[in-house]
Design a protein that fits this description.
The protein has 20 helices and no strands. By secondary structure, it is mainly α. The chain is globular and about 65 Å long. The C terminus is likely disordered.
């Protein structure tokens, strides 16, 4: 029986803290990467061709590699380990490794040939369609690389090794930053500079794939050169992967639909990259917190589902939802009320001007309203994947895709920020749909306890909104807009909001705060 109550909460807090620190470091470096890119390229002009070119292989990756494969692989691999079939589990993992490498390698070659057809729906992004086609051809190999990475990361996560996989993006970002700093100044044209950016991403992806491989040696098996596709477990991974692929792919396909609307109907030389820049900031707390909680809990949920321990399963899902709300609701509030100073401090230099800051800040505020719901959808999706019922979130994702397109068509008229606003409404609708479907699947879930915690967290976050904006506004008026002054005014506002949130949560009796304080007292 899995541990329950306070012990489980402390273990979740400890594992999440470790994973969050590792992921947070990579996200911070990712933000530095975006700052460097914004300095060299801004958000207007040909960089929009790069934004579109990168989104296309990224969509294919989400369909057939990386998280899609790992989400289908972990439950099957964990179940084999739970049953004591370790040799077979590793044989299945080896088969999937080679099948993904060979299959995605062939798919990559096909997409390189068909790149003009793939880019066509976006019109003339950045005013240079040919540049977008060329950049996409350079970037497509990341699909095959991240396919094998999905197997490696899935193995490590099944053994509850989270830190090393979380650190690999650190080196991915470092490689790209180095490529930009060392290569871009020596390129003569904007197109050449963007090719430097694309090549740096491919090199960073190779590093990301190879880095965790040595940690496989300390486990109780190893990857072999084997293709045992007749094993029912291999087939089951692919059977599970079909709806997972569709579900995760549809989520990412929404981003492509957003870019099509932004490029064709708003501003092809600003809107796609402005939305992308806002999305990068929006994903920082998402990656540090909700991805951490969902990833840490996924193997435990898979084991509980395999044992048929639905009481334990319900408790872990509720615990995860409450922890995500505790971390993301205040982050959502801060991202909304301080959107403009955050964007100004991070991006406004070099080729990135004040008008671009205003557009990106509007997009960030619209994204921020749906931040918590995006995190809860991730947690609920993992719950269904653990139950090996992936068609349920797939159906929800399909509904979200249709809703997103309808809302994009309605909201693009208000400007660039209308596209992220539609994403927020989609996240809210998807969360409520998944909660109701999970309740029907399990009979009951801890909705009452989670609802009470959510109300308290929202009340505490309202305090955060007042304190953070008031602190920033006062300091900004007095200190001005120099780089140092911006760092001080925004930094003090963020620190004040953390203190205010902690005090408000303690006053309201938010249990998730007690779990973190318990972790600190134990010296974890």
């Amino acid at each position: 029986m899995e541990e329950r109550g306070p012990a489980r909460g402390r273990r979740l807090a400890r594992s999440t803290a470790i994973f969050s620190l590792a992921t947070g470091l990579s996200r911070i470096l990712g933000l530095i990467r975006e700052i460097v890119a914004a300095y060299y390229f801004g958000a207007a002009g040909k960089v929009n061709a790069f934004t579109v070119a990168f989104q296309v292989p990224n969509l294919v990756r989400s369909l057939v590699a990386d998280a899609a494969l790992s989400s289908a692989f972990v439950p099957v691999f964990s179940e084999l380990l739970e049953k004591g079939e370790r040799k077979r589990a590793w044989r299945v993992a080896s088969t999937l490794f080679w099948l993904m490498l060979l299959g995605l390698g062939a798919l990559t070659a096909l997409f390189i040939v068909l790149a003009p057809l793939v880019i066509a729906p976006f019109g003339d992004p950045g005013g240079d369609k040919e540049l977008a086609i060329g950049l996409s051809r350079v970037l497509f190999p990341i699909v095959a690389l991240l396919g094998v990475s999905g197997v490696i990361v899935g193995i490590l996560n099944s053994y509850e090794h989270f830190t090393v996989p979380a650190l690999t993006p650190v080196f991915w970002n470092l490689a790209i930053i180095a490529g930009l700093v060392l290569g871009v100044p020596h390129a003569d044209t904007m197109s050449a500079k963007l090719y430097v950016y694309a090549i740096s991403i491919v090199i960073g992806t190779v590093i990301q794939v190879l880095l965790p491989v040595p940690w496989l040696r300390g486990l109780d098996g190893r990857l072999q050169v084997v293709l045992d596709w007749r094993d029912p477990a291999v087939r089951r991974v692919f059977v599970l992967m079909v709806p997972v692929t569709i579900g995760l792919g549809l989520i990412n396909f929404n981003l492509v639909v957003d870019s099509i609307f932004a490029s064709r109907l708003i501003d092809p030389e600003l809107a796609p990259t402005a939305i992308d820049k806002a999305f990068r900031i929006y994903m920082l707390p998402q990656g540090m917190f909700s991805v951490a909680v969902a990833t840490v809990l996924f193997p435990s949920l898979s084991r509980l589902a395999a044992r048929g321990d639905l009481d334990g399963f319900r408790h872990i899902v509720g615990l995860g939802l409450r922890q995500i709300a505790f971390l993301l609701v205040p982050a959502s509030v801060i991202s909304a009320v301080l959107a403009e100073p955050i964007v100004r401090l991070l991006y406004q230099r070099g080729q990135f001007g004040p008008h671009q800051t205003h557009v990106v800040a509007g997009a960030l505020a619209a994204f921020a309203a749906g931040l918590t719901f995006n995190g809860t959808m991730l947690m609920l999706n993992r719950a269904f994947f653990s139950l090996q019922s992936p068609w349920i979130p797939t159906a929800v994702a399909l509904g979200n895709l249709a809703l997103n397109a309808v809302l994009d068509a309605a909201f693009y008229r208000v400007g660039t920020w209308g596209i992220p606003l539609s994403t927020t409404f989609v996240n809210i609708a998807g969360t409520f749909a998944l909660l109701e479907l999970l309740r029907r699947r399990l009979g009951r879930i801890e909705l009452a306890e989670t609802g009470r915690a959510f109300v308290k967290i929202v009340l505490a976050s309202l305090v955060v909104a007042v304190v953070s904006y008031g602190a920033w506004r006062g300091l900004d008026s007095g200190l001005g807009r120099s780089l140092g002054a911006q760092i001080v005014s925004l930094g003090v506002a963020l620190l004040a909001s953390v203190v205010a949130y902690g005090l408000a949560c303690r006053t309201l009796g938010v249990r998730e705060l007690r779990a973190l304080l318990s972790l600190r007292r134990r010296g974890a």
